[in-house]
UniProtKB/TrEMBL annotation, chain A:
It is found in: Nucleus. Residues 374-385 have a biased composition (Basic residues). The keyword Transport does not apply. Residues 315-341, 403-413 have a biased composition (Acidic residues). One of its GO terms (cellular component) is delta DNA polymerase complex. This is DNA polymerase delta subunit 3. It comes from the Eukaryota.
UniProtKB/TrEMBL annotation, chain B:
SUPFAM superfamilies: The spindle assembly checkpoint protein mad2. InterPro entries: HORMA_dom, HORMA_dom_sf, Mad2-like. Coiled coil: none annotated. It comes from Elysia crispata. It is found in: Nucleus. The keyword Nucleus applies. The lineage of its organism: Eukaryota, Metazoa, Spiralia, Lophotrochozoa, Mollusca. GO terms for cellular component: nucleus; zeta DNA polymerase complex. The keyword Ligase does not apply. Residues 5-196 form the HORMA domain. Its main location: nucleus. This is Mitotic spindle assembly checkpoint protein MAD2B.
Length: 472, 203
């Protein structure tokens, strides 16, 4: 009953507001004025309008509706539209919307409104009066939102001010540091970030390599590849003394890459032909890994980098030819490096020897095809002598006795000696020259390759073995 | 700035806004020449036509002079029939004298602003209480003041090239008029009421 009387009273009030006071009654205004839920206010307005319209005759009230729904924007995109429209345009607006999600009476008034200004003014006043609790009767609520008390609000405002002041100070300090170039951790990181960003992949490769070095155990082919790539790129940029040292490693590196590729091709071809090579390959892989591991370990400090460069040179010389490789070996070598090198050489030699023997047996066409390869094999034959030296110790390897033992190519050995001497004198000089000499050294055996091919590889191998035994 | 001059400024501003509002609500000019502006934190309509604006500005300046020099009883916007120049409607702002020391109770003018906003809201919905706006009408502004006040500012008005003349008797009298109260306001600053008069001719 009470509810019914309340509703009746509300209807009376609404009629009074609208007809007597000539007020604009919006649902929000009604809700706040009578402290009723917004939906109750909407329903009351709806009932009022319904009653007025049912009375018949000439009703003098104007109604505006709130309509919401999915409509299309100018671009044709779907958008949620909300509009307050007069009653006359209600159907038009509804039709323009694909889906009407909400439609209720927004306001009832006697005047025929020309614009929304009176609606805004009406709500403005009532909202201003209830500014702290203007949404208390709204059906849209958020339980996590709580109104701060005046004290806490003032405190938070003070904290905000303090924070702002602090951040400003920090900003000043930071800017000063960056300007002066002090090495604060923040500036360092910033500088690093700045460096890393523009350079992109190169620097990131460096970073990844260094990280892996730090890890210690992680050593793999990608690391080596990145190292090689980064070195090559880095050396392009560098100049002066550093360029001198870098070049020393650089040119052999390039050669090594190329030659390694060739070797791998060679290996593939040979593996197809001969199963015996498979075992050699298996041996070779772990050794390469060892090499790479050594490279990775030695990267971090500069000294080790140099070492690695030397090893690269050594490797490349092994792969390329004995003439270029041997002169670079001697005095400056480090024991560890030598051990690695010698192991590699030994196994590679064995592998190549078997390859050559079998190849010569197969056909001549393969020989002509592998003219370049044959040269290398001959070179490697000379390296075979190193292999024996390895078993004895590296001091033995450096001895020229191995070369002398090669009876077939005394001339060549003498030429090699001369070249070696010249190389030794040149080692302290520009490495660019060395690279050219290496290429020369390659070129020289080309002419001799034909003669070497005639001589059986087995013979030379046996001679070297014999020489080894003789020594003992 | 003294309280009196501040009060005069506020009042003259309000008169300007009211004139624009009446012109808009009664459809004296097409809606296209009006633009929304913010006054008292609410949107109001303002006519953009330069001739109309200049005329209103001159009227308001004159009212300011009159208010500052002496007493102004009424300011009315009169809507006249175009041919006969007989008044059809009249929106009257009836003013009491601006009181002194009025800012003590309302130093930030919140109450004053709210009251003026209320006037504008009522004015904008007044057309519901009046007859539908008639076509072929013109308008003018009448100010009810004392002779001494007018003579005090007469020279200034002439200098401004906007002299005031005494209104015709015909424009002042409205037969069978009906009074429509709009809003009244009593405060420490000012006693003011706004009402509309319309002649029975429209009915």
């Amino acid at each position: 009953m009470a509810c019914e009387t309340d509703k009746a009273l509300l209807q009376e009030n609404i009629e009074e507001y609208i007809k007597d006071d000539n007020k604009v009654v919006t649902c929000k205004w009604l809700s706040l004025m009578h402290s009723i839920d917004i939906n109750v206010a909407k329903r009351a307005l709806h009932i009022f309008v319904h009653h007025q319209r049912n009375k018949g005759g000439n009703d003098d009230i104007n109604v505006t509706f709130f309509v919401a729904g999915l409509g299309k924007s100018k671009d044709g995109d779907l958008m949620h539209k909300c509009a307050v429209v007069p009653e006359t345009e209600l159907e038009v607006v509804k039709r323009s919307l694909a889906t009407v999600t909400s439609c209720h009476i927004f306001s009832v008034q006697k005047a025929k409104l020309k614009d929304y200004t009176p609606l805004y003014m009406t709500d403005y006043e009532v909202i201003k009066d209830n500014i702290d609790k203007c949404n208390r009767f709204s059906s849209i609520k958020c339980p996590w939102v709580s109104l701060k008390s005046g004290l806490s609000a003032s405190k938070s405002a003070q904290q905000d001010v303090v924070k702002v002041v602090l951040s400003e100070n920090k900003g000043h300090a930071f800017s000063n540091k960056t300007e002066t170039g002090n090495d604060s951790p923040g500036s360092k990181t910033r500088a690093l970030a700045k460096k890393v960003e523009p350079k992109g992949s190169i620097t990131s490769m460096f970073a990844s390599a260094s990280k892996k070095d730090g890890g210690g155990n992680e050593s793999s082919k990608p690391v080596q590849k990145t190292d090689a790539a980064s070195k090559i790129k880095a050396t392009k940029k560098k100049g002066g003394v550093t360029a001198f040292f870098e070049k020393k490693g650089d040119s052999p590196l390039k050669q090594k890459d190329v030659l390694l590729g060739k070797d791998s091709k060679k290996m593939d071809a040979s593996s197809e032909r001969f199963e015996s090579n498979v075992t050699n390959e298996k041996k070779q892989d772990p050794k390469r890994k060892k090499k790479q591991a050594a490279d990775a370990d030695e990267e971090a400090p500069d000294k080790k980098r140099r070492r690695r460069i030397k090893t690269d040179l050594f490797d490349s010389s092994d792969d390329e030819d004995v003439e270029a490789g041997e002169p670079e070996e001697p005095e400056e070598e480090i024991e560890e490096m030598e051990q690695f090198e010698v192991l590699d050489k030994g196994i590679e030699e064995e592998h190549k020897m078997t390859e050559e023997e079998q190849k010569e047996e197969v056909d001549d066409s393969s020989l002509t095809k592998s003219a370049v390869v044959g040269k290398k094999r001959k070179r490697t034959k000379k390296v075979v002598s190193k292999h024996y030296e390895d078993e004895e110790g590296f001091m033995v390897t450096k001895k020229e006795t191995v070369w002398e033992s090669e009876t077939d190519e005394e001339d060549e050995a003498s030429v090699n000696k001369q070249e070696k001497k010249s190389h030794q004198s040149n080692t302290s000089e520009d490495m660019g020259k060395l690279a050219t000499k290496n290429t020369k050294a390659k070129a020289d055996p080309k002419g001799k390759a034909a003669a070497k091919k005639n001589s059986s590889p087995q013979k030379s191998k046996q001679t070297s073995l014999m020489s080894f035994f003789k020594k003992k | 700035m003294t309280e009196a001059s501040m009060g005069v400024d506020i009042l003259s501003e309000f008169v300007e806004v009211c004139i624009h509002c009446v012109l808009y609500s009664r459809g004296l000019y097409p809606q296209g020449v009006f633009e929304k502006r913010i006054k008292y934190n609410v949107p109001v309509q303002m006519c953009l036509h330069p001739g109309v604006c200049a005329y209103i500005t001159n009227v308001v300046d004159s009212i300011k002079m009159l208010l500052s020099e002496g007493q102004v009883d009424k300011i009315s916007v009169v809507i006249l029939e175009e041919n006969s120049t007989t008044p059809l409607e009249r929106f009257v702002i009836e003013l009491g004298s601006v009181k002194s020391n009025w800012t003590e109770k309302d130093p930030h003018l919140f109450q004053t602003e709210q009251a003026l906003r209320g006037f504008l809201l009522k004015l904008s919905v007044t057309d519901a209480l009046l007859h539908p706006a008639s076509k072929d009408v013109t308008w003018t502004v009448h100010v009810h003041t004392q002779d001494s006040t007018l003579s005090a500012v007469d020279e200034q008005l002439v200098q401004k090239d906007f002299p005031w003349v005494e209104a015709e008797e015909k424009q002042q009298q409205m037969k069978n008029s009906r009074l429509v109260p709009i809003k009244s306001y009593n405060s420490d600053w000012l006693n003011m009421q706004l009402y509309a008069e319309e002649s029975d001719k429209n009915s």
